[in-house]
Amino acid sequence: MCSKPQAPTPSNLKERFQRLFDSDLNSDCEFIVGPDKTVIKGHKVIFCTASDVFQAMFFGNLKEDSVRVEDLDPDGFRGMKTFIYTGEVSFTSVFHALSTHIASQKYMFVDLTVECAKYIVNEIQPLEVLEFLDLCLAHDITEFDDLCFNMIVEKTDEVLASDYLISTNIRTIEFILKSHSLKLNSEIELYDHFERWALAVVERQKIPKDCVATMFNDLKKHIRFFTMKSDDLVLKVTSSTLLTQEEKLAISLQKMKIDSNITLNTISITQFPRDFTKLLSIPKIRRIFYREISIDIEDRSDPQKIQYIKTNMEPLENHSCDQVLFITVHWSVHDEYICCEAQPNTNFMGPKKHMIIKTEIRFSDSNGCDQVFENESFHRNKVFQESVVLAMIPTRILESGDFYRDGRGLIDVRSRFEIDLINL
């Protein structure tokens, strides 16, 4: 009797897919990635199984065997390819994770997007923040802004020690100069960093000497010159090429407490010093996102109809992965109430983090008088394994109200979730 061959074990399957990834054996498609036109080969069936985007690309009306991908980095595309073939990915740096994150969003791999974000949040270092922010800005990514800006405020001295400071974007420099709290020793130290960045811009852009003193007027107005020590002003500021003679005179007269009629909109008049000693009392990461759903409250006899019906899961503010990163929201309809619950993502949050969720649920009334339910709750990490009830809404309110319904008789619901992750 001939025995049937055993199906390959998962580990063998993984090894086989890894071998295909490493060798490109029998590949039947290729991606030409990035400005250097790096060729990355692949197998249509594997890519198509992983994403409908590739299915349409290779077998749709405009099918093609060679695909030009100009807006992605080759390392990021390879990271995504690794995940497609093996279900795993190993990052070499936060920049590798970011480039993979960009690729995963382009081709809608939500699970990979989460893995990239988790790595970035856990591994990013102060010396990397400035360059990382610039890359995010170049690709119109905002979901890591809070993470990076919090690190700039809390670890300013380490962040500004980066060699990349002289190349960083003006947006980040402005944020630093406008911050009320920074981890530095004094205002003159902040000015030294600003001057180092500004002079690098002057050299890079070959700005004429007679234009240097007025080149950075929009930034100089955030420097608190009048909070500096007199010795610092004499030794450093009055000799700086970033200030006009009029500005230097106005600062000197003010420090000597000599009344002057000189008023300049390029110099801050505040004498209130920054807080250079106290860090943020509660370091936090905040995300706000919106979701629209529709709910059927007419027929609850079938247990399968307890689950809500999604009509629009596109976010109105942040990226769709915000919901995956922090919480997954579940709705259910019961006899007497509608329940909105959240399942916090324990993999994304560290063991010391706690969560505050502010919830606003709005039912659209056809007369313009919406019903709004609001709630705020604090949840410690020890109960993160459990679902969190965000709202319980009596169905009688919806049954009696004149709420807007779509063509299927479903009630429209808009929900807003503001999530703060904090360290205590």
Automatic annotation (TrEMBL):
Signal peptide: none
Domain BTB: 27-93
Record PROSITE patterns: BTB
Pfam families: BACK, BTB
GO cellular component: cytosol
GO biological-process terms attached to the record: neurogenesis
InterPro entries linked to this entry: BACK, BTB/POZ_dom, SKP1/BTB/POZ_sf
Protein name: BTB domain-containing protein
Provenance organism: Laodelphax striatellus
